[in-house]
């Protein structure tokens, strides 16, 4: 399936891109994050540990829940300021 991943703030810096679309067989957010960690390395993995996630605009609390078909996943690290 096609998965669009949008990175914000520190996640964008760690991934080196604001957005990517990939063909993936990841069925869950956990599986997708593992695939992205393999692709981008430890720096992005450390961001994942602190990030929140939106899947198709909805907060995704359980990373073991199955992803919908062709989702957009937003990676939202903690933001400074306010």
TrEMBL record:
InterPro entries documented for this protein: Beta-grasp_dom_sf (IPR012675), Mopterin_synth/thiamin_S_b (IPR016155), ThiS/MoaD-like (IPR003749)
Taxonomic superkingdom: Bacteria
Pfam families: ThiS
Name by which UniProt lists this protein: Molybdopterin converting factor small subunit
